[in-house]
Amino acid sequence: QVHVVESGGGSVQAGGSLRLSCEASGLVVSNRCMAWFRQAPGKERERVADIDSVGSRTYGDSVKGRFTISQDNAKNTVFLQMNSLKPEDTAMYYCAAVSALACSLRGLYYQYWGQGTQVTVSS
User: Fold this and answer.
1) Is 111 exposed, middle or buried (0-12, 13-18, 19+ CB in 10 A)?
2) Strand ranges (DSSP E) for 42-123?
3) What are the angstrom distances between the C-alpha of 33 and each of 55, 79, 105?
């Protein structure tokens, strides 16, 4: 059974940083993609970043150059380092995982989801 658990959200002022963590227990590390999505009230869910088992990474245009996704395969954990945060980054952030080699920007592609962690950036 797969469990996805996020941690690390919180409140920060614009320009600040936060680091999110996501542990996906029960997944085969060599055959999985993990991603971060976010959703703000009244807006569509947005893929923020993803990383596959060999470390290939993709970022959404709105976060390129500010966010970094990384992973610790030994712990089946991914991280999202968020720097230079802006008020428009305020959202619920979700970690998602799929038992597949490839990643996708489509939320429906992912099999497992965490409960979400809130990120609030004030101006």
Assistant:
1) middle
2) 46-52, 57-59, 67-72, 77-82, 91-98, 112-113, 117-122
3) 9, 13, 11
Task: With cut-offs at 50, 70 and 90, classify the pLDDT of residue 110.
Answer: very high
Nearest to 81 by CA among 96, 66, 94: 66
Look at residue 104 and tell me whether its pLDDT is greater than 90: yes
Lowest mean pLDDT among 12-21, 32-41, 69-78, 86-95: 69-78
State the burial class of residue 24 (Cβ atoms within 10 Å of its Cβ: 0-12, 13-18, 19+). buried
Longest dimension (CA), the chain: 41
Residue 28 one-letter amino acid: V
Of the candidates 117, 112, 118, the residue with the CA atom closest to the CA atom of residue 4: 112
**pLDDT of 28:** 85
Closest C-alpha to 6, from 95, 103, 76, 122: 95
